[in-house]
Automatic annotation (TrEMBL):
A molecular-function term among this protein's GO annotations: DNA binding
Residue spans crossing the bilayer: none
Sorted UniProt keywords: DNA integration, DNA recombination, DNA-binding
Protein's recorded name: Shufflon-specific DNA recombinase
Occurrences of domain Tyr recombinase (ranges): 167-346
Gene3D superfamilies: 1.10.150.130, Intergrase catalytic core (1.10.443.10)
SUPFAM superfamilies per record: DNA breaking-rejoining enzymes
Swiss-Prot/TrEMBL GO biological process terms: DNA integration; DNA recombination
InterPro entries noted in UniProt: CB, DNA_brk_join_enz, Integrase-like_cat_sf, Integrase_catalytic, Integrase_recombinase_N, Phage_Integrase
Family label: Belongs to the 'phage' integrase family.
Amino acid sequence: MAKHEKTKEPGIYRRGPGQYEVKIRRKGVAASRTFDSFAEAVQFKNETVSKIDGNTYVDQTRERETSLSDVIDLYLKQVTPTKRGAVQEANRLQAWKKEVIAAYPIISVEISDIVAWRDRRVSDGKAPSTIYNSLNLLSSVFKWARQHGYKVDNPCEGVSRPKPNEGRCVDLTDENEAKLLTACEKGPGWLVWFVKIAMFTAMRQGEIRALKWKDVHDTHIHIPRSKNGSARDVPLTLAASVCVQEMRKALPRRLDGWVFGDPDASPEDGGCTTTMVQNNYRAATRRAGLAGELTFHDLRHVGCTRLAPLHRDCFELAKTTGHKDPRMLMRYYNPSIVDRVAQIRARERALAMG
């Protein structure tokens, strides 16, 4: 080990070619850092001594010795398992761990690093919602770190998010609906019922996967815990009620009570995973000649649009669809101009009749 040589500045030692170590012991505070230049070492010493004398010095040794990857690991272990959608969140966090900044000390991650990451993702053509979700998740990691004593700023704060795309305008014609359902019938026996429930109720895929028979009634479907954490009841239209009754006859009853399978188990163990649903649904859209035109999430748009005329206002509709913010319904409610004109004409006739 190279011998430390004193310099002309007390408390600063030369460790070797181009390396200067600062050692400070003052008022019971010990601090040390190594720099590549003498000027940086002097600046650090003067600033630190000034902070110690003014009682504003903050020891950030732990923050310099802990990488962003280390903090993400702690978050993955202590926080992620408590959330719904833990698998998806874990995947996003693993993606962050592959980034160059994951190896940085957590104190060294700056806003410019986050902005550069965002700009790369935009140039790669990633969807604004994908970037938005990843940024918000990393921001949550930093907030959690601060709450647990890490003396760091949150570099995600103040970073503008990409402007979201306009909501998709989804119009499923009777002809395409018939093609889709016929194609679903050629897949696994559960698929056509899964798709029908989505179209009739506007329920989320995760909510349908988590259905238990005890929560499926002729008049409504009870969701014990939705995406936003609260329970809700989804009223069934007459057509949806008929669908539920037919589904009871068509699907075999499982001993575990799940309608489609345990959402947390693998397909091999009788589970019903997101991947299983997506793969079978995409295969059906290919058979129907609708590949790339109608995602599974689009069925929620279809359901919202069809349910809207049956509700008095957007607040009542939000109770059915589970939207906390009724404004989000504007992205899901996609009536055609023909339907809108028909609704207005019908209201005009009703008013004229008194």
